[in-house]
Amino acid sequence: MLYKEIDSCIILNSRTSPRFPVLRGIRQGCPLSPFLFLFVVETLSIDILHNDNFAGLDIFNREIRISQLADDTTLFLKDKEQVSPVLTTINAFSNASGLKLNLSKCEIICLFDTVETEIENIPIKNEVKYLGIHITKNLISRQFLNFSQRLLKTKYIFNNWLQRDLSILGRVFLSKTEGLSRFVYPSLSLAVDNHTSKNIDKIFLDFIWSNKSHKLKKYVLANKRSDGGLEVLHFDDTNNTFKINWIKRCLLGSDSLWYFIPNNIFKRVGGLSFLMKCNYSTGKLPIKLARFHQQALLAWKLVYNHNFSPHKTILWNNLDIKIRKRSIFFDKWFNKNIIFVADLFNSNGDLLSYECFMNIHHCPVPFKEFNSVIKAIPDGLICLMKASLTHESCTKQLSQLFLGGVSLLSKDCNNKYIRQLFQSRNSISPKGKFFWGSKIDNIKWRKTWLLPYKYCIPNKVKEVHFKILHNIYPCNAFLSKFCDVADICTFCKKESEDICHLFFSCNVSSLFWKDLSFYCFSKINVNGVFHIKDIVCFFENQNKSLESTVNFLILVAKFYFHKQRFLKKIPTFIEFVLEVEHLIKSLRVINNKKCISFLKRYDDIFHVL
């Protein structure tokens, strides 16, 4: 009705063609089109779901037949005899709607091995690609097909970017946009082995350091900017975050098509929610899990804090309580509310006898089964239980699923929060803090790290400040340890060139800072000189306009020193002032709150250059 008797035209070379009637299909780009398409395709889905001529896969007493995303459709069929009636149904739909099945794009993958090569002219394959994911039963091939090609493409793109003179901040940004983004989609659906994860991180870090030696540990780079890092995202942390989010969705949508299967598997060990509260080991659970589910449970163990207390120790799925090298779970006991190890002890801290156990819990179990559970409890845990139950009252209660004080199922437990929990486990204090802490007293590190981010300045300027604070700036004294370079200062040609000498104590540098201090303080009729703390960390003053302006000039001056050293020229104050003037002129063109706020303070001091 909505598309009846409509016409269209084509724009060609700034002109429009004669209008023509649209007799079939739908308009390209029309916002109504996808809804009309879905409205029609939904009839096919309803027909397949309620058709008695064929059977789908029966899993945990629930039949699965079809999964659709836009025009991509997957059918789950019981056996090869179901293919023909399904094709008959689809052909009937095609005749009614005009949507034709493209048999050349159809593929079949079997759950079990078969000698047949095709069914109804549809090829049988060991590997198919669906929605961008390669699906195959071979674990090695699955990793290779879904990640190796992406690794090669990412490396190729990074090498192209390295031909440009990028700052380390720019390379960190690109490692996320051009690198990490390519691995997000497959890692949401698949387990990622350690070898692949390490290769991904290596490619990212090699790119960040321009394929040169890594000057800082990867966990230092992952720190927040306020802690001296560049907020580099490690793939391990990102992948673990995805797996925790999968657990969250699995708990919230337990009856949905893609989550009822794992939830039914986890019911064999008390359910996913209960298992997450246990002290489990994925390799010792009494059920067989897919690698994806194992990785999700391992990620949970890494981030969840199990507060160990003897009387709250859970009996089931406990890695320390094993029978035949497997942790135990007995559904009959669990349904009788026998959950904790303490349920097998009396108030005096002694193990219950078989008769007492039967009388207290009303759980008729064979003596052999009861005895095997009792023997599986380690002697050390029995001693702890006896001491705990003897000296304090026993209050048994299952812990809640909280991560760092935030409920797993709440909206506050988002991607960013979960990833920060993983990153905080590996947080490292930069060595630069100890180096400068031995030379400068009372450094306010948070303000020092964040100083360059207050200004609209080139990333190269921020990079010089970053390298100085981490004591990784490539001065001659540092380079001479690794290559044939004289450690003599580039400016004075007399003393050894370390960071302190190059940027502060060199005769040339000292004269420059003296001129800059006069240039700044004379504007407000104040006498003052710069100290090493002002140059390395930040300048502090009650006059916030002066403080902001001076810190800006010092940051730009350190980059100017870096540039002159690279050009092997002596820094001169007059040339520096000219460069500052050009930078200020360019900043005045930028319509940015940060920039406008700084220029207002700058003009308060210099009354517009």
UniProtKB/TrEMBL annotation:
Domain Reverse transcriptase as annotated: residue spans: 1-135
Alphabetized InterPro entries for the sequence: DNA/RNA_pol_sf (IPR043502), RT_dom (IPR000477)
Name recorded for this polypeptide: Reverse transcriptase domain-containing protein
Lineage per the UniProt record: Eukaryota, Metazoa, Chordata, Craniata, Vertebrata
